Amino acid sequence: MPSWFQETGDISREKMLELVVRAVETARTRICSRPGKVLLLPPDITRAHSGAGWIAEAFYKILSKEADVHVIPTLGQHLPHTPEQNRWMFGSIPEEKIHVHDWRNGVRTIGSVPAGFVKEISRGKADWAIPVCVNKSLLEEKWDLILHVGHVVPHEVLGFANHNKNYFIGLGGKPMICASHMMAACCGIEKNLGRLVTPLRACYNKAEQDYLAGLPDFYFEVVMAYDAAGQLRHTGVFVGDDLDVYLDAANLSREQNITIVPPLKKVVAVMQGDEFYSTWVANKAIYRTRMAMADGGELLILAPGLKRFGEQPEVDRLIRTYGYSGTENIMNLWKKEPVLQDLTHGTAHLIHGSSEGRFKITYAPGHLSEKEIRSVGFGYADLAETLRRYDPAKMKNGFNTMPDGEKVYYISTPSAGLWTTREKLEAEE
């Protein structure tokens, strides 16, 4: 059972706002009756479709009547929002109350997950300590209440997103993010996807228990699923301050967000132009469909917002230099290339983004050139031509037959789920 409360079913916006009020009232009873200083930790713009922005705004409106409320989008190493993006996502929350997480200079190391624990939990695939390195403000400011808002959905590194991922990636420092991503890559992306407690999640649970247990925090976690009309709807809200609130949410997400399909020869996926600007985040289309792709199949990604590869210039250069060239090649290069050893989160990303030669990945980008796309190991398609053939306004989620008889499987929001064959899902359990 969740530590506080949960709601499942078709949750309207009106009902969601009622649950926000209930969460605040419960927090006043359980954590602080009259909070004077509050920290809101929503996701960044790559999860805007979850409604986390307007949910965070609702919390702000209530709590700011009596408290000094601050917001830090849990960027990790993603590019900071512009003021326009903040307004689009968070509505009326004042810009001066929204702060940028600096994953290099705004963090402090407070301990580590020991190498022995990492080696044991990963079954020997990783044998290094993971530094516990988080945003300084968590530790140096006196918060009366810390409130996480997030979307629990299948995730390539942690099995499912949100919960203490907010701390250790979203507000994590470079040493922690790098060590974490490389550990997850060594364990294997397809052994992480859709698993409730991955080896890295176990490390994060230990880190939270050992170093952050005293924080006055709680989690407001949402689950979403497609309705009969093919629209994403909120289907679960889980509120609490312990691990059970994550496990309950992840179990519902596992039930609703994992789609079992036969091996798919052609998948067309859309990465929304107002959320996904780099392959660092747009490659979620690869992560969430790779277990469904047939050998020799093709994944076609429509990415109208795509204008870079990495979220930072140094990671963009890394991707342009080494490309998505497969686990064996990248691991061999990692052993001898200092830049891959320094930016290990980028190294892990190169592994995650490769099909290992099993299926073709084709991008139809809004801004990157054909030469750029092909240089990192992807196929290229013209966006305008691709949109004419596979018009999102005319496609439906699932199987479609095109006028010329071509059969494709369409996914409008790959980041909202996981698609897999039953054989692959059960093989990884």
Query: Which structural class should the secondary elements be placed in?
Result: alpha/beta
User: CATH H-level name of the largest domain... which superfamily?
Assistant: LarA, N-terminal domain
Shape: globular
The CATH class name of the largest domain reads Alpha Beta
How many DSSP E strands? Answer: 18
Compute the CA-based radius of gyration. 21 Å
CATH architecture of the largest domain: 3-Layer(aba) Sandwich
Beta-strand fraction estimate: 15-25%
Please report the number of helical segments.
18
Any idea how many domains?
A: 2
How would you describe the overall organization of this protein?
This protein has 429 residues and is α/β, with parallel strands linked by helices. It has 2 domains: 5-258, LarA, N-terminal domain (Rossmann fold, 3-Layer(aba) Sandwich), CATH 3.40.50.11440; 261-427, LarA, C-terminal domain (2-enoyl-CoA Hydratase, Chain A, domain 1), CATH 3.90.226.30. It is 37% helix and 23% strand. It is built from 18 helices and 18 strands. It has helices spanning 13-30, 52-63, 83-90, 115-121, 136-140, 165-170, 174-187, 199-211, 243-257, 279-282, 284-287, 313-322, 327-334, 338-342, 344-352, 370-375, 383-389, 422-427, and strands at 5-11, 37-41, 68-71, 107-113, 130-135, 145-151, 154-155, 159-160, 217-226, 232-240, 258-260, 264-270, 293-303, 360-365, 379-380, 398-401, 407-411, 418-420. The strands form 5 sheets. The chain has a 6-stranded mixed β-sheet, with helices on both faces. Strands 15-14-13-12-17-16 form a 6-stranded mixed β-sheet. Strand 9 (217-226) and strand 10 form a beta hairpin. Helix 1 crosses helix 2, helix 7 packs parallel to helix 15 (344-352) and helix 13 packs antiparallel against helix 15. It is globular. The two termini are 23 Å apart. The mean pLDDT is 95.
